[in-house]
C-alpha cells in the first residue's frame, strides 16, 4: 500500500483514500473564445506524460476532501513531495 | 392516516456481542455539517470550544478538513441560526455504530486502511472501510464510534459482525 502525505491533514494516509486528478499547473485560458482549435486542443488533451518527475493533482476524497499537488516519479511510483493547491510549482 | 411516525432503523437495534467485541447501533443523535473559514467563526456561532486541527475532535465537534466540521449533538438539538457560518442538518443521513472491546482495533482493521493501533483517543477522521466511506472517531482505547451513511449501514453491519465472528 502506498502512503501519500496529505498537506492539509499533515500526515501520511493510505492511497485508497485518494483520487488521482491528472497533470497539475495547467491554467485554464483566460479567454477561450479567442483561441483557435489547435490551441484549445492543446489545453484540453495534450499532456506532458514525462518519464520520471511528474507534477500532478490528487484529491483526498475520503479524507479532508481537498485537492493538492504532488511530485511523483512515474518510473518508481515514489512521491517526492506534496504541497497545497495554489502554492508554486516545486 | 398515522398519527405517530415510528422510527425505523436500517440495522438491528440489539447489540451484537461476540468474543471480546460488541457492535451496536449508537443512540439517535443530531448531526450538523459546519462550514466556515476559521475555527474561531464556528466557536463564535456555537459558543463552545472548537478545534482547528484537522483530524481531531473537541466537544463532539470533529474537524474533518479545511473549513469543515461535523458536530454530533444530542437528539433534538435545534439547528443554530447563524449567518456567518453554513450549518446543514445531516442528522438523517448518517447512523452511528459503536465498536467496543479489546478486539475493536482488530475488527475495524479488517477493512479500514488506517493504522488504528496508533490512532489516538480523541482523533476523528473521514476514511474508508472496504469500499464504504466512514467517519471514525476513537472515543476510548477500546471504543470507536463509526459514522456511516444510512443506506450503507446495512452492509457495514453485515461485514463488521461477520468479521468479528471469525
- N- and C-termini, Cα separation of chain B: 46 Å
Helicity level of chain B, as a percent range? 10-25%
For CATH, the homologous superfamily of chain A is named as Folate-binding superfamily
As an assembly, this protein is heterodimer
Biggest interface between chains: A-B, 15 and 13 residues
Kindly estimate the percentage of residues of chain B that lie in beta strands according to DSSP: 35-45%
Second-tier CATH architecture of the largest domain in chain B: 2-Layer Sandwich
Specify the overall morphology of chain B. globular
CATH class of the largest domain in chain B: Alpha Beta
Strand order of the largest sheet of chain B: 1-2-8-11-10-9
Number of helices of chain B: 3
- The H-and-E topology of chain A, N to C, reads as EEEHEEE
Structural class of chain B: alpha+beta
**How many beta strands in the DSSP annotation of chain B?**
11
- Please state the structural category of chain A: mainly beta
Textual characterization of the structure:
Chain A is mostly beta strands. Chain A is 10% helix and 37% strand. Chain A has one domain (3-84): Folate-binding fold (2-Layer Sandwich). Chain A has one helix and six strands. In chain A, the strands form two sheets. Chain A has a four-stranded antiparallel β-sheet, with no helix packed on it. In chain A, strands 1-2 form a two-stranded antiparallel ribbon. Chain B has 166 residues and is an alpha+beta fold. Chain B folds into two domains: 17-28 and 92-165, 2-Layer Sandwich (Gyrase A, domain 2); 29-89. Chain B contains three helices and eleven strands; from the N terminus they run E-E-E-H-E-E-E-E-E-H-E-E-E-H. The N and C termini of chain B lie far apart (46 Å). The mean pLDDT of chain B is 94. Classes of the chains: A mainly beta (90), B alpha+beta (166).
Amino acid at each position: 500500500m502506498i502512503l501519500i502525505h496529505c498537506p492539509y491533514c499533515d500526515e501520511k494516509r493510505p492511497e485508497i483514500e485518494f483520487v488521482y486528478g491528472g497533470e497539475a499547473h495547467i491554467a485554464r485560458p483566460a479567454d477561450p473564445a479567442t483561441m483557435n482549435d489547435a490551441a484549445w486542443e492543446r489545453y484540453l488533451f495534450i499532456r506532458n506524460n514525462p518519464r520520471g518527475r511528474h507534477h500532478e493533482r490528487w484529491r483526498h476524497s475520503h479524507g479532508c476532501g481537498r485537492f493538492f499537488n504532488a511530485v511523483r516519479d512515474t518510473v518508481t511510483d515514489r512521491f517526492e513531495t506534496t504541497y497545497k493547491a495554489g502554492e508554486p510549482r516545486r | 392516516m398515522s398519527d405517530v411516525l415510528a422510527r425505523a432503523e436500517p440495522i438491528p437495534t440489539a447489540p451484537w456481542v461476540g468474543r471480546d467485541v460488541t457492535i451496536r447501533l449508537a443512540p439517535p443523535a443530531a448531526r450538523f455539517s459546519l462550514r466556515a473559514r476559521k475555527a474561531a467563526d464556528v466557536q463564535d456561532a456555537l459558543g463552545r470550544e472548537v478545534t482547528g486541527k484537522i483530524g481531531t475532535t473537541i466537544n463532539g465537534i470533529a474537524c474533518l478538513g479545511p473549513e469543515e466540521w461535523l458536530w454530533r449533538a444530542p437528539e433534538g438539538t435545534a439547528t443554530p441560526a447563524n449567518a456567518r457560518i453554513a450549518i446543514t442538518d445531516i442528522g438523517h443521513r448518517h447512523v452511528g455504530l459503536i465498536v467496543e472491546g479489546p478486539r475493536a482495533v482488530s475488527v475495524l482493521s479488517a477493512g479500514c486502511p488506517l493504522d488504528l493501533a496508533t490512532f489516538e483517543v480523541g482523533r476523528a477522521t473521514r476514511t474508508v472501510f472496504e469500499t464504504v466511506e466512514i467517519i471514525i472517531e476513537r472515543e476510548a482505547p477500546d471504543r470507536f464510534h463509526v459514522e456511516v451513511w444510512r443506506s450503507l449501514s446495512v452492509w457495514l453491519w453485515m461485514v463488521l459482525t461477520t468479521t468479528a465472528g471469525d
